[in-house]
Every structure is written in structure tokens, then in C-alpha cells.
Amino acid sequence: MAAHSTIEAITARIVERSKPQREAYIDRVRRAAAKGPHRSTLSCGNLAHGFAVCSPAEKDALAGDIVANLGIITAYNDMLSAHQPYETYPAIIREAARQAGGVAQVAGGVPAMCDGVTQGQPGMELSLFSRDAIAMAAGIGLSHNMFDAAVFLGICDKIVPGLVIAALAFGHLPSIFIPAGPMTTGLPNDEKSRIRQLYAEGKVGRAELLEAESKSYHGPGTCTFYGTANSNQMLMEIMGFHLPGASFVNPGTTLRDALTREAAKRAMAITALGNEFTPAGEMIDERSIVNGVVGLHATGGSTNHTLHLVAMARAAGITLTWQDISELSDVVPLLARVYPNGLADVNHFHAAGGMGFLIKQLLREGLVHDDVRTVFGQGLQAYTVEAKLDAAGQVYREPVPDESGDPKVLTKVDAPFQSTGGLKMLTGNLGKGVIKISAVKPERHVIEAPAVVFHGQQELQDAFKRGDLNKDFIAVVRFQGPKANGMPELHRLTPALGVLQDRGFKVALVTDGRMSGASGKVPAAIHLTPEAYDGGPIARILDGDMLRLDAVSGTVEVLVDAAELAARAPATADLTDNEFGMGRELFAPFRRNVGYADEGASVFF
To answer: 345 and 300: one domain?
Structure first.
């Protein structure tokens, strides 16, 4: 079907807006592709260092431009459940490359931190910046100019966006992302949330809380709720960086390993040495970016991607705005109900038809572009499949059925869970922000209440424990932006605000910080920019000011006369404690140079 008129119009607008930067970027990609890699032109010393540990046969092959050399960038560590499976991937990839007549080398490792571990801790203030550090670390690995293509082993929150930025910085190289998959289903996510709220109320102790958390996060793979990590996997598939059907296959299965081997061999096939050269920088274009945004809306994905997709697009010379994201949300229906937007987890989503069914439905209404390039070598229609194993252990693909395996989890485009995607841009006299309402009940889409101002999560938690918040209010949590303290996620607020909402109070959150992919039932205006540190209007709010958060009209405002608001001196905060400890001093240059949230909160763009 032809693309939806609004999808076409927004895509065309992005193309026109991006033209100067995109043309310059494509020119750089093509000039880099024309230069190499040509290992035979490296000095003997360069080359000897580059293949010192290779076998004699591999050295002979790499001495000229005879076979492809595949660079592996890995985010492996065995503390993160999602990344622990990557320990064995390099050996699988090297053997697959050998079978394909080439060579594979681990080009470098990148850091991978877990927001689940650092939540509410000082280390969380490094989380957003880790994205750009990961991009730089991957860039160092690929800078040796020994490689004809790259595969990226990463899956979680900031890791995939950072790796995408690196892949696009090295856009002359073909790049394939290889997922590890979600952990098997454990304690249901809604039950985990219930225990968290009981703990916040003091009704259960730490032992009960730890038991529930351990039953939820219990083995290798990504967390099973639909947060940023699993949103990343959806994006990589719908944008064509994954092989079809690869995103949500569990770790440790024969199919998972077969898909890894297939990805390595496919990466070898799309280098400049063959006939299917697919450089990442030319493969990813404005249509691919729009497809990613549409997928985010259709699945109720992570608010973090209002930052990451903007930064990823800029790495390819494409200017994506929050306005684009918001307008796309208005025409893209919500087709998936995965926690926190429902009770199911990503395993249920995959079993119901997963990415293949989702893409098929979106294509049916012209909501995504089919005429895109992908690592699979075909348009998006080739992704309307389910990956399976044949008797010989090889991957084959079958078309997904016309009906969902579970309509309560994954529905058809003509029977959506809601008519819009649920991510909206907010504007008003407090600046610009975003809100995710796919998990917020309609009666809470508009909240008007007095402000209670805090300069950190702990202040709000202390007020909750004292019983000071048993009332209607909008929590203003400021000095949480990228320049102030690195823009940490504020999920320690979620149980307390959820308890208050369940008690019948009208509550909401307004912040220049983040709430990420687990944004749930409490309305939250997040990523507010300009941030308080820059003297943004959020710094002028006083306790008791009436605020209005309207997710229907897309506004966030303080109901104060404009002249009075302008006359107020912006509040200040002592951020000394946010500058040192747990590595925060090392990231001072990031805080000084980071851009605005609506521009991707990056140090690069």
C-alpha cells in the first residue's frame, strides 16, 4: 500500500530540512568508502600489528584485499544480564566468518552500564553520557582501518544508541547489530510493581522486595518489560539493522546461535568486496528514521528515544525534531500492550507474532516505508516473517499469520488499543517537554494542581514518608537536566507517586530529568527544556503556583502572569555533591558541553 499521506509529508519535510547536512554526510561516506580499507596499502608495521595473532592462512588473506575482515564491537560484561550472553559470540562469529571465507576480529569493547543497578544512585548521573562515551569507544575500535564491515554486540539502554552513532560515524562500513534476546518470563511485571508500592508504603520489608525483584530479573537476557532496552531491539529490526525476526529470541537457544552465525555471514556478504555493498550511512536514511519513530509509537516504546532517535538521526546528517515525533504519534495507532502499557512482557509479544506481525500491520496501512534498504538486502516487506530452524540447524523464515496469536497483546491495525501512539510533545510557558500517555488512564491526561517544588528525588521521597504529600499536587523536580547532573532517570519517584495516585489524589510530575522506558501510570512531563540549570522557566516555579499539564492539547504551563513570571529570579541549586564520586568528576566536560534535550542531549551535535 502507498505510504500514508501524513507519513509521506513528514518524511518529505525531514528530507528538505536535512538536505544540507545529509548531502555533506553522504559525500563524506562515499569518499571514505572509496579510500578503503585497503590493507595492502598499510605499512608493513601497521599490518603486522593488526594481524599479529592471526593464523598464517589469515595473515596471507589479510595481507591483500582478498577476503573480508569483520570487526566485532562488543559490549560484553558478565554483570549485566542482557550482555552476559555476548561472552561466547566472538567465537561463534569468527567461525562463521571462516566458513564464509573471511576473517573476524574483536575490534574493541565498549562500556555497558545498567540503569537497573544504578537507579537512584550516583552512577546514574553517568548513564545518559555513557551513550556518547560508547560511541567514542566504538570509534576507537574501528579507527584501525582494518575492517570491511562491522557487527555490533549491544542491547541495552544507552548502548545501542551509542553503537548506532558509531556505526553511522563509520557509515562507509556495512554494519549489522546482533541481539542477545530477552530473559525468559519470571515474576509478572505488574506483581513486581505491586510489591514496590507496598515497600514504599512500608507494608513489606526489604527481604520481600528483594525476593520479588530477584524473581523478576532472574537470568540471562534483557529485562522483560518494554523499556528502552527492548525498544532498542524493536528499532534495530524496523530500521533494518537486524536480520528479520532476530530481536526477541531468548539467549542460550539453538535458534539464537543460528541467527548469530547468519548475521556474521551476512555481514561478510554486504562488504565492498562483493556485489551487495550496503554501507550503513547510505542504508539508513530519512525513511528509516521515520520507520523507527513509527515503530516506537505503535509499540508504546521508551521516552528515552525522544533523545536517542534525534541524536542517532543527526549522526547520519538527518534533523529529526520533537515536533516530527509528536505529529507521527497523532496518526500511528498503538498496536501492542506490553508492560508498562499492559500486563504482558516481550516474550508474550514475540509469541503473539512479534515484529513480523507488527510490521505487516503497519505496512498494510502505509504507516511505514517499505522502499528502504536493510542489511537483509530487501525492503521492509521481507521483515513480515518469523525466524525458525530447519532440520539441519539453519535459519529459515515463514510469513507471519494474518491473525495475532494473542489480540490482547498484539492487535491489528484496524482494531488498535488506541488511535494514537501516546508520545506527545508538550509546549507552553515552561518550554518544551514530552509525555508518554499510553499507560496513563484517559481521566488523568489533564491535571491542574498546585506545584510542590523539589531539587532532587530524595527530597520528594522524604516528603512522602513524612505524609506531606497526601493531597492534589504536581511535583516539580528540577536541576535534573543534562547540564545540571547528567539527566538521570527518576524512577525512585514512581512508587511514591503511584501510591498517592492510587489513594485518589490528582498527581503528576514536571521535570527536566528523565523517566525512560518504564514511564507508567502517573502523568509525567519530562525532558523539559530549557533546563533549570540554564535558567529555564522551570527554575521560576514557586511552591503553590498552579500548574496545568494537558496531554490532550499538548501543553504544560504555570498559571502565572507572564510579567510576574519573567520578573522572578530563577532558583539556583548547590550541585557540588553531583560533581564528584563514582566517576562523576570524569564527566565534567560532558556536562559543560552537552546540547539541549530536544537536540538529543549529545556532546557531538
So the answer is: yes
